[in-house]
UniProtKB/TrEMBL annotation:
InterPro entries for the chain: AMP-bd_C (IPR025110), AMP-bd_C_sf (IPR045851), AMP-binding_CS (IPR020845), AMP-dep_synth/lig_dom (IPR000873), ANL_N_sf (IPR042099), ATP-dep_AMP-bd_enzyme (IPR050237)
Organism: Actinacidiphila paucisporea
Family to which the UniProt record says this protein belongs: Belongs to the ATP-dependent AMP-binding enzyme family.
The AMP-binding enzyme C-terminal domain, residue ranges: 454-529
Name of the protein this chain belongs to: Fatty-acyl-CoA synthase
Lineage, top ranks: Bacteria, Bacillati, Actinomycetota, Actinomycetes, Kitasatosporales
C-alpha cells in the first residue's frame, strides 16, 4: 500500500528560497585581512544568487546539466555560487586550489567545465593552465586581481560584479528531479586518476538537515559558524547549505587561513562554532599559547578529516575551555559519517573515552565492518575490519565522464553496493566507531597489526612533540616495522631514547618503533592531512636521517 503523503522533491532551490526569506537577517561575513570585514545578509546573498543564475543563463548561455566550476576561497560570492548553480539545474564543481597543476587540468577536462568562477587572487594559479583546459568557454573573475594575466587567453573573460549588474531579481527555477546532480567534487586520490563524486539535490538536502541537527553540529540562527575547512573540501563539510537552511550566520575566512588571522577573527567576530582539520587547530593552539586571545565564544568545534590526537582535544579543553568534537567522513560520504558526542549519563574518563572515538553514526548512515576473511565483524569494540557504509548521502559510484557509465571499481564498492571506505577500525556495541588506520597505512609486523594512528596519538601526547607521523617500512625479520617521524616543539632538545621510553610506558613494548627521524615539518596533502606517501618515498629514497635504537 502506498502512503498518502505528497512527493515533493528535496532541492537546493528550496534551501535558497527558504534561507533568503525566513532567515533573511542572518549574515555572511567575509574576513578581509586588515580592512573592515565584508557583511552581507542572507537576503542579499539570496538575491545576488538569483542575479547570478540569470547572468549565467542569459550572459554565458549556461543551461541545465552544465558544469560550472569555482576556484575560490571561502567567501560570500562562493556562497552565492553554491546556491545559484544547483538551483538553476547546473552542477557546481568546486576545484581544489591546492592540487598539483596537472591534476587540476585533468579534473576540469574530465568534468568538462564550461565556466569557471575564480577569485582574482588565484589568477596566477589559473592563467598558465588555461591553454590545457579545453572545455572552458568563460572565466568570471571575482574580486581584485591582476586581470592582465588573462590577456590573450581563449575563454571569454568577465567581471563578476559587472555580469550581475542589472540582472532580474527573479528566476524561473526549473522543476528538478531530486536525484539529479547538484554539485561535484573530485577525491585527491593517492593512486590512479582523481575520482568525481556527484552529489544529488536530495543528498545535499538530507545531509544539510543532518549537519544542522543536535546530534551532529546542532546549529541554529543563534549561531555563527566559521568554516575554516575550504569550500572545495567536500563542500566545506556541508556547512554552507546547512547554514542557509537553518539561518546559521557564517564567518568566512577567505584566504586568511594562517593561525594569526584566524585567532584575530575569532576574537573580534565571536563565532560559536568552527570546523577544520587537526593541523589547523594544532597551529591555532601554538598561536594562542604564544599570544593569548579571547576565543571563549566558541562553544563547539568540529574536527575531522584525519584523526584528532586526544592530546590536542585535551589541550583545547583545559587551556582554552573549547570543546573539540571529533567527526569522521570522506568526499564519498558528503562528508558527514560520524560525530563523537558522548551518550547521556557519562562523565569523567568514560566521557573522554567516547569523545576520542571517531563518533557514532546517524540513523541515515548504515555501517558494517568486513574482517580480513570477508566476514562481517561484530560490534564489540575489539573485532577490527574495513568499514563499509551506505545511506542516502553516500556515493554509489563515481562520475564516468560525459556520456559514459558511472564507475564502480571493485575496491571501492562491494557487490551489494556498499561503499568500501578503506578505513580500518572497530565499532562499540553502542555504535561508536574507532578508526585504527587507513587500510594502506596499517603496519603489519610479524603477523600482528600496529596502528599508526595510535602511535602518533601517543607520541603527540609528549609535551615536546609538535607533530608525529608513523609509517610502515620494510623489515627483514618482521616484514614491516614502524618508522616514527617527529617534529619537535621549537627549542626542545628531547632525544630519541626519551621518546622511546615515553612510548614504552603507554603502548605494548613490541609496538615501540626502533627507527626514528626528527623532521622539520610533516608533509601535508592538499587538504592538510599528513601525506604519508611522501614520507615513505623520502625513506625509500634514503633522504631521511634515520636513527636506529
Ligand atoms: P577525504 O575524502 O579527502 O575527505 O578523505 C577521507 C578520509 O580521511 C577518510 O577515509 C579517513 O581515512 C580520513 N578521515 C576523515 N576523518 C577522520 C577522522 N576523524 N579520523 C581519522 N581519519 C579520518
Amino acid at each position: 500500500m502506498l502512503s498518502t503523503m505528497q512527493d515533493v522533491p528535496l532541492t537546493v532551490t528550496r534551501i535558497l528560497e527558504h534561507g533568503t526569506v525566513v532567515h533573511g537577517r542572518s549574515r555572511v561575513t567575509t574576513w578581509t585581512g586588515d580592512g573592515e570585514p565584508h557583511r552581507r545578509s542572507f537576503r542579499e546573498v539570496g538575491l545576488r544568487a538569483v542575479r547570478l543564475a540569470n547572468a549565467l543563463r542569459d550572459g554565458l548561455g549556461v543551461s541545465e546539466g552544465d558544469r560550472v566550476a569555482t576556484l575560490m576561497w571561502n567567501n560570500a560570492e562562493h556562497m552565492e555560487a553554491y546556491l545559484a548553480i544547483p538551483s538553476m539545474g547546473s552542477v557546481l564543481h568546486t576545484l581544489n586550489l591546492r592540487l598539483p597543476a596537472d591534476q587540476l587540468v585533468w579534473i576540469v577536462n574530465h568534468a568538462a567545465d564550461r565556466v569557471v568562477l575564480v577569485n582574482g587572487s588565484l589568477l596566477p594559479l589559473l592563467a598558465p593552465l588555461l591553454p590545457r583546459m579545453e572545455p572552458l568557454e568563460h572565466i568570471v573573475v571575482v574580486g581584485p586581481g591582476d586581470r592582465g594575466l588573462l590577456a590573450g587567453c581563449r575563454p571569454a573573460v568577465h567581471d563578476y560584479e559587472e555580469l550581475l549588474a542589472g540582472r532580474p531579481a527573479t528566476y524561473p527555477w526549473p522543476e528538478l528531479d531530486e536525484r539529479s546532480a547538484a554539485a561535484m567534487c573530485y577525491t585527491s586520490g593517492t593512486t590512479g586518476d582523481p575520482k568525481g563524486v556527484v552529489y544529488s539535490h536530495r543528498s545535499v538536502y538530507l545531509h544539510s538537515m543532518q549537519v544542522g541537527s543536535a546530534e551532529s553540529m546542532g546549529l541554529t540562527d543563534h549561531d555563527t559558524s566559521l568554516p575554516v575547512v575550504p569550500m572545495f573540501h567536500v563542500n566545506a563539510w556541508g556547512l554552507p547549505h546547512a547554514a542557509f537552511m537553518s539561518g546559521v550566520n557564517l564567518l568566512m575566512p577567505d584566504r586568511f587561513l594562517q593561525p594569526a588571522p584566524l585567532a584575530e577573527m575569532i576574537e573580534s567576530e565571536r563565532p560559536t562554532h568552527a570546523a577544520a582539520v587537526p593541523t589547523i587547530w594544532q597551529g591555532l593552539l601554538a598561536e594562542l599559547t604564544a599570544k593569548p586571545r579571547d576565543v571563549s565564544s566558541l562553544k563547539r568545534v568540529t574536527i575531522g578529516g584525519s584523526a584528532c590526537p586526544p592530546a590536542l582535544m585535551k589541550a583545547f579543553d583545559e587551556q582554552l575551555g573549547v570543546q573539540l568534537c571529533h567527526a569522521w567522513g570522506m568526499t564519498e560520504t558528503s562528508p558527514l559519517g560520524t560525530v563523537a558526542l558522548p551518550p547521556a549519563g557519562v562523565d569523567g574518563e568514560e566521557e573522554w573515552a567516547y569523545r576520542i572515538t571517531q563518533g557514532r553514526f546517524p540513523a541515515s548512515v548504515e555501517a558494517r565492518l568486513i574482517g580480513p576473511d570477508g566476514a562481517v565483524m561484530p560490534w564489540d569494540s575489539e573485532s577490527a575490519g574495513e568499514l563499509e557504509v551506505r545511506g542516502p548521502w553516500i556515493a554509489g559510484a563515481y562520475y564516468g565522464g560525459a556520456g559514459a557509465e558511472p564507475l564502480r571499481p571493485e575496491d571501492k564498492f562491494s557487490p551489494d553496493g556498499w561503499l568500501r571506505t578503506g578505513d580500518v577500525g572497530v565499532i562499540s556495541p553502542d555504535g561508536y566507531l574507532t578508526l585504527t588506520d587507513r587500510a594502506k597505512d596499517v603496519i603489519k609486523s610479524g603477523g600482528e597489526w600496529i596502528s599508526s594512528v595510535e602511535l602518533e596519538n601517543e607520541l603527540m601526547a609528549h609535551p615536546d612533540v609538535a607533530e608525529a607521523a608513523v609509517v610502515a617500512v620494510p623489515d627483514e625479520r618482521w616484514g614491516e616495522r614502524p618508522l616514527a617521524t617527529v617534529v619537535l616543539v621549537e627549542g626542545s632538545t628531547t632525544g630519541y631514547a626519551e621518546l622511546r621510553d615515553f612510548l614504552a610506558t603507554r603502548i605494548a613494548r613490541w609496538q615501540v618503533p626502533e627507527r626514528w627521524a626528527i623532521i622539520p615539518t610533516v608533509p601535508k596533502t592538499s587538504v592538510g592531512k599528513f601525506d604519508k606517501k611522501v614520507i615513505r618515498k623520502s625513506y625509500a629514497d634514503g633522504e631521511l636521517d634515520v636513527t636506529k635504537l
